[in-house]
Amino acid sequence: MYLLGFDIGSSSIKAALVDAASGKCVAQTFYPKTEAPISAPRQGWAEQHPADWWENLKLATHDVMHTSGISPDEVAAIGISYQMHGLVCVDKDQQVLRPAIIWCDSRAVSLGERAFNSLGEDYCLRNLLNSPGNFTAAKLAWVRENEPEVFDRIDKVMLPGDYIAMRLTGEARTTLSGLSEGIFWDFRKNDVSEPLLQHLGIPQSMLADRVPTFGFQGETTEAAAGELGLRKGIPVTYRAGDQPNNALSLNVFNPGEIASTAGTSGVVYGVIGQVNHDPLSRVNTFAHVNHTAADPRLGVLLCINGTGCLNSWVRRTMVPEGMDYNAMNRLASEAPIGSGGISFMPFGNGAERMLCNAEPGASLHGVNFNVHNRSHLLRAAQEGIVFAFMHGIRIMEEMGLHVSRIHAGHANLFLSPLFRQTLANISGAVIELYDTDGAVGAAKGAGIGAGIYRNTHEAFDSLTRLEVIEPIAADLEATYDAFERWEQQLRRCLD
Question: What are phi and psi of 174, to 5 degrees?
Fold first, then answer.
């Protein structure tokens, strides 16, 4: 018996096939093999077409099934992880009406701020736990104001994972955690926020029907099974946004536990056990995968947009052609802690929530043409990302979330010894790296939702810890000095 997990990212679509009995991944892949394009018709916009996600999902599914040699009859359940906060609009025939407005698109910031001011800070933060900001609800309001001909044809709005589930099952559905991340959910009333919908002019009928995060959400149709090379009737039993799912993948379910990623965006995600919020809405609070009104489990999410995209930009523009990330990391390590006085602001990928939706852009400071070389610039980029993490961690600590241990997958920037050691040094946290990823986590989530695993302990008993990184005492002073210099420069940029 096997579990199939999908991770619908903005860079690629990943698929993983997990042996339910052993918990081990037997095949995994991703498509496209080069980073998926993001369309930016105007500055601050970011769009992808959902049809491209589906085409790459088909390729990934055929690949893992062929590579594993597993019969489609042996696939017991499907789980889905997806890029958060996107907006997909479909008509009554389930046809997409416009490209998806994805997570890093900042066009709706002003509409979210208008709603925040009109509905009132107290209502938004106490009930929604966030400012409407630049999330799905605000993006839909932008469509209403700027593309009324599209808005009038909308039957349902969905998040990216909801769209993939619709293609699999033929049913447009969403989850409580999805409504929460779209800023549609009122945590005090435990229902959709009518005041928000009324203010934004959104009929509640546009929201998809709600299904449990874990449990039956539909089953593969004959048409979907034919396209994917699967069998008809496989149940979809789990769905969550990429950051809650990453936490699930790392066995992070309970208050005080922390998960982190450093892919296209960088995230620190901590679980709290009470309904709470940041008074300035610089970090976001959403329903975690195991949240219930009776037993709250909320994820506090710090997101830095300019993380992996800065690292890939640096590789494209600052190193010799053909140099891979491992070689680039080694070159960066040749520079001293603090990068010889250079501070790199990693904010070149849209508005940053932890900076109160400011968009200062990426910038380099302190470069001396007679002193600095490529290694200094490369190290400054990674240190700048880490210091942005730490700036946000301080906000999370103000909410009472103590960061002493960070769980992360052995992937993306956590493959860089320089990055992970700098993060351990500046945060004081022990970092544990695990052999897992979002698609594997989605597969195990499907096993929980299908009742194949009795509980989360059984599902993640096979999780393999690869490495533990502890702060290095001798490096702490130099790291703190570099961080303080970086924060001073950040204040100047914001001023």
Answer: -140, -175
